[in-house]
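Researcher: I'm preparing a figure for a lab meeting and need a structural model of a single chain. I don't have an experimental structure, so a prediction will have to do for now. The sequence is pasted below. Please return the structure as tokens so I can convert it later.
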Amino acid sequence: RERPSLLADSFEAVVGAVYLSSGIRAAQRFILRHLGPLVRDAAGRPLLDAKTALQETAQAVGESVDYVLVSVTGPDHLRVFEVEVKVGGKSAGYGRGKTKKEAEQAAAREALRSRSRRS
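Model: Understood. Here is the structure written out token by token.
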């Protein structure tokens, strides 16, 4: 009863049961209530990065997520990447960054913000 793998499997089963009986929002509340303090960084932000959070949100409703490189500007030592993220084939956000990954994260954050405003 104290083996981490068995405890993790049991918790996963309970989360699955909550999800099946009450839906995604109830499962999210359950997880945050029990694991919230453990899954946040020192600044209190969730540990899930924006791309992962967007992917999970989109998959929950059967939508795809695609990142499109819009432009790369600046000299080699000061590149600026601009990325558009499409959710379900529709433009959902834009992001800029020093790397392609930073730009994708920024685009995902924007898409998540706009999705949460619509909910």
